[in-house]
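Hi,

Apologies if this is the wrong queue. I'm a grad student, and the batch job for Probable zinc protease pqqL from uncultured Gemmatimonadota bacterium produced an output file that my downstream script rejects. I'm not sure whether the problem is my script or the file. Here is the sequence I used:
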Amino acid sequence: MAIAAAALTFAPAPALLAQQQPALTQESPLDPAVRMGTLPNGLRYYIQPNREPPNRVELRLAVNAGSVLEDPKQLGLAHFIEHMAFNGTRNFAKNELVNYLQGVGVQFGAHLNAYTSFDETVYILPIPTDSARVVERGFQILADWAGGQMLTDEEIERERGVVIEEWRRGRGAGMRMALKQFPVEFAGSAYAERLPIGTRESLQGFSAADLRRFYRDWYRPDLMAVVVVGDIDPARAEALIREKFGSMAAPRSAPPRPVIQVPAHAAPRFSVVSDPEATNTSVQVSLQHPARPTRTVADFRRGVVEGLHDAMLNARFDEITRSPDAPFVAAFANQGRSVRTLESYTLYAVAKENGVQPALTSLLTEAERVSQHGFTASELERAKAELLRRVERAYAEREKMRSGQIVDRYVAHFLQGEPVPGPAASYEMHRALVPGVTLEEVNRLARELITDQNRVILANGPEKAGAPLPTEQALAATFAQVRGKTVAAYVDNVSTTPLLANAPRAGRVVSERRMDAIGTTEWRLSNGARVIVKPTEFKADEVLFRAYSPGGTSLASDADFPAVSMASATVSAGGVGSMNRVQLQKALAGKAVQVNPFISGTEEGIGGGGSPRDLETLFQLIHLHFTAPRADAEAAAAFKNKMTGLLRNRDANPESAFQDTVQVTMAQGHARARPFNAATVEAQDLARSLAFYRDRFSDAGDFTFVFVGSVRPDSLKPLVEKYLASLPSAGRRESSRDTGIRPPRGVVRKMVRRGTEPKSMTRLAFTGAIGVRPEEVHGLRSLSELLQIRLTEALRERLGGTYSPNVNWSVSRLPVEAYTLNVNFSSAPDRADELVRATFAEIEKIKNEGAPEADLNKVREAQRRNAETNLRLNQYWLNNLVSYDTRGWNPAVIPTEAALAERVT
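Support response: The file is valid. Your script probably expects a header line. Output copied below for reference.
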């Protein structure tokens, strides 16, 4: 049954010039592109054809059952069943399901996945559609998950170890503190004691009968939806749903699906928790209320008003963090669901050490300021401009939106009743509703949000001598002191000067070269800079760019390096030209542009992007970041305070200690490869950083600029000549300097003993020389992917010793051509050596016997399928054009990745 958006009809934008207000009582529309229906057994389905990317479809099975439905004997079993879906079904014995999907190019974890939360379980399956058999099998897999899991004793026991390792991996200060604060936040409800992962005791001791009982009770068609979005015939998809799911029936004794409420409470609740391994201090105020449906245009409009309020308050919080004496490191306000039946208005701050009460005071003071004086007209104008710009860009991309961006909206519609009007109706509703939102109604909302009831205040942080957390009584007193206190009105300081006061004297393009094989145009500019342009049609409203030049911090002296290692961040915190960072953000309201300078160890540059409509602004910002970096002592001090606040207790985290040891070991203790910590930030010097930044960006002559996206060379050329060819050039031709960082030779073993949990982390790092050519790099990548498959099978599936082994790789051209291949896994400490031995056994097996053809086919298919989708991404092209250019490779090879995959042997 196809359901059209009958109640509320909009013209296909942008035709609505009159901007008539829709009736607020009308139902919010459902995207007319979707075919939605319900089978006789109660199963819902959503089907939307979408051709981006071609020959792919995103499948979801949404089950309206999560951990909140578990009884005391079933803690963690909703999530455990999600695991069992990959370990034997009616049509796929044991691990055959994963093997089959890998054989058709679907990667386990990266593509094939699932998640379990308090309220739902969702299975994720993207598959190719250029084979009718693969499509049919994909729908069969969904049906098997829904009603055909075998749940055998043997496989349950095999998976028990894997899930315990997932529990173990999540253990740490954050989890320990959350387990103490959830019972306060969700007191009186099952949410307080039903964390999806369960407990170690429950995972070790549950019975198979209790697991099967959960599956029987809650995996039934009236609690399920199938969502299909992609390059598929809707009629074919609907027929497959009816064929595969039509015979499913709920058990006769199926219990009703309860709606779990969080009881209201008159008295405020407080919780203050510390942990010796916590790294940051935070405070949170939540004003709770029952979740409200979003069914009508009035509900949609309410969400718009709330979003504008949050955006304006968050802008004020961000402005505060840019002051040297900011009472918090970061802060935000948000209105949204905490769990299915509960919404909260939340004020949250990351506080400085010993600074919970000043942070809480500031959060509440800003809320009081808005309550007493409201926002300003200029703030609302900027917030509206930003919102409408985002909606306009989404509408512009309506034909280019990828299926993965769409599918989860229908999952949310099924599970939570979230509206899915589609990009056209959303665009028209925003255009009709946003201009009518008044300052008074946003200010009225602000006055209503801070209530005396249903209030929860949580604080947590390090358990540390000399930095005690405040008591609950002290938090209550702070709240009482600020509530109702008279505060001054906010003053909106806006710069009226233009972004670029004087137009630069344009240079020119002096030569042009085209590479028709990949559709690029390369220009040499009069100042020596190069520009590479690749027009695409992958996105309608996206242009990405990166500029780069060799050198980086390698060219800083050893004496200067500590003071300038964060030069780009230190300097850019001050803004550009005549505007500080806050003024710049305000000036750019409603513009879709992003420009971020960087200085790495071997190069300097700028990255970012924006909308084709805002290209001139983008180029002005690029020009200013070269010619007018802004020294701002207050901004630099604020940046330093913020970063030191975030990093001060970093060493308390055992995982940070482990990563730091790895970093130091792999660089043999080199001074330029020391861990990033509070001492790194404290060493930064604004004057020296500004001088180094200016030196790195003073000569554009050896820079290369790469632009990819919805832009034509003829429209870009005038901007290039005006803003890039006019950049200063000194004729330098630099290269990065070899600073002597090298990995150790031979076998090195390091042991880090930190932490209170029964948990270990292991990294095996392999390094060596490599000829950095496309074929050799592809060989390393293929080996890494093969080893990922083999170690997942050995360490996870066969031994049950870890949740998710990870294999990653990298290659470097400078200072020498070299590779690194890392194997990482977490486990119980007493099993780490066993898993190391098993890892080396798999490596030796590949070296001595080669890889099984079935596994090689998995690697080939995954690479071939990934190439098909990657070649339709602007980011992929930008990354590869830059990579190939800096390595001196022929960029015409980029589209041949699929051909390289066929050579994997």
